Amino acid sequence: MPPWAPDTVVPDRSYGATSPFDDLPPVVPVRYETCMLKGAKVGLRARYEDDIEVLRTELYDDVVNGSRAEGRPWRPMTPDSKDPRLVVDDKAQGLVQFSAVELDGETLIGMATLYDIDTHHRSAHIGLGLLPSCRGMGYGTDVVAVLTHYGFVVRGLHRLQIETLADNAAMLRAAERNGFVREGVLRSSSWVMGEFLDEVVLGLLAEDWNPNH
């Protein structure tokens, strides 16, 4: 399971139908700047060396958060080791990793990933993780918006998918807000801290995407 920003299950509906989130302000179109994609609140840029220690400490050092963020058991890492989850390989074809920053001041707020990129089926998966102090501010919705734009417009993909734990209401809201619809539940598919949890699968097709919603 990929890393997600953390926390009601998204209702099954077609994009554009009545939703408890319809009264929220529209998603701001993505803007381009040198080495950065910009949304309403966040920018996605390349991963800097200084980002890695902050992201590892904030997202993975805590046993509970680390266990929820990954589909494998938590384990400690030595301070000077290269963390493969965060060190970017610019030659990797199936994975694009960004650092997410706040537009005002470009403070690091988390990470964003487009992964399992399949150029034959033109599909990919979206993942993100926000620092604990940056949650609950609407950043997750904006990160999903920018990643969706990148996937459909820049990469020319046809389908994007998100999987997240069923109790991760924040990620479900961020996906729903950007037009993703719930396609199914993987029952008891994730072992997390002593119990099996369900995962929700959400998808969005390019022809159903409305970037101005």
UniProtKB/TrEMBL annotation:
SUPFAM superfamilies for the chain: Acyl-CoA N-acyltransferases (Nat)
GO molecular function: protein N-terminal-serine acetyltransferase activity; protein-N-terminal-alanine acetyltransferase activity
Alphabetically ordered keywords of this record: Transferase
Domain N-acetyltransferase stretches: 50-198
InterPro entries linked: Acyl_CoA_acyltransferase, GNAT_dom, Ribosomal_N-acetyltransferase
GO terms for cellular component: cytoplasm
Keyword Transferase appears in the UniProt entry: yes
CDD domains named among the record's database cross-references: NAT_SF (cd04301)
Domain of life of the source: Bacteria
Database matches in PANTHER family: RIBOSOMAL-PROTEIN-SERINE ACETYLTRANSFERASE (PTHR43441:SF11)
Protein name: RimJ/RimL family protein N-acetyltransferase
